[in-house]
Amino acid sequence: MLSLRVARGSRPAVLLRRAAVTVTAAGTGFLLLAALAHAALHPGRTGGSALRLAWCVVPFALTAYLAVLVARTEPSCRLSAGQPLALGRVRALGAATTALSCALGSVVALTAFQGPVPLAGALTLLVLLPVVAAGAAALSLRPPRPAKAPGGLPWGAALIAIGVAVEFSAGSGPGVPLPGGLGRVAPAVLCGWALTSAGLVLAGPGLVHVCGRLLAACRPGVLRLIAGRALQEDAPRIGRPLGVLCAVASALYATGAVARVRPAGPLTAFGIGLVLLAALAAALTAVVEAGQARLPATAALTGLGAPASLLRGAAALRTGVVLAAAVSATWAVAELAGLRLGA
Questions:
Q1: Which DSSP state fits 262?
Q2: pLDDT tens-digit readout, 7-48
Q3: Which of 211, 274, 214, 268 is nearest to 242 (CA)?
Q4: pLDDT of 40-52, one tens digit each?
Q5: pTM of the model
Q6: Are 164 and 98 in contact (CB under 8 A)?
Q7: What DSSP element (H or E) covers 177?
Q8: Which of 21, 192, 263, 271 is deepest in the core (most CB within 10 A)?
Q9: Any residues with CB less than 8 A from the CB of 62 and at least 6 apart, and which?
Q10: Collapsing DSSP states into helix, strand and coil, what is residue 171?
Q11: In contact, 56 and 31? CB cutoff 8 Å
């Protein structure tokens, strides 16, 4: 009941973020029900049905990740360093709000899906996302800690290099079917994709931090100094979601090379759009969280007489630098993967 009262009294921006969770949860639930319907209609093709269900792990994980980030931006779930006694209450509220948003999406999916599915199996699948997302949101809510310089860039680069090497070492034997009739890929290629994606996610905070250090290096002016320091502070918050978005974009870029030869089916296209939407929403939510954490510093600069144009210029500068670095990393990894698929 408390989560319902909090939801009714929320601001439009908060409701929009919760709506994003509900929409992606509904899409994920629809894909899960489609996999279940395939299993019910083709009881003799358990392998294909299991593979369809396995591909649903990607939107499932991204939806849960988005729900966690949205829970951390909730005004009612913010903790300060001096509130250790409120941690249990805040975690319970965050879990309840997250479960409510995801459960609403599951209800929408169950209502909209028209295929024949066993009710017990459908309810079992649809309850997984609210439970997992609520538990992850509760564990993610903790008092803020002093920020440390991220150190994952070398390890992320190493994982990307290993992943590319694994992709190019793949043989030409029987492959794993891609969803929607996009053909087959060797298991080693899938393993390489997983490694490069993990490398991009791991390298994200370090990449953002390095961008900030470069901006603030070599006797910077006020504009570069403010933008660089802000990026270094934001790296732990926006780096990981940015890495997730880069991983999704590079995988979709490589998949696009296959889709030009074998067009994807409607359900696969829906899944691709859902994954991209969840990754974009997660990145934007992380930007909101970083902006909330930066409010005291912004207020201090404004109190010292910093003009609004300077703050807007610093925001534009750090956005441009991060986008340039992210697009370059995404393009490089996607091109390498595309070379292997075109071989």
A1: S
A2: 554 678 888 999 999 999 999 999 999 999 988 887 877 777
A3: 211
A4: 887 877 777 888 8
A5: 0.89
A6: no
A7: strand 176-177
A8: 21
A9: 24, 244, 248, 275, 278, 279, 282
A10: coil
A11: yes
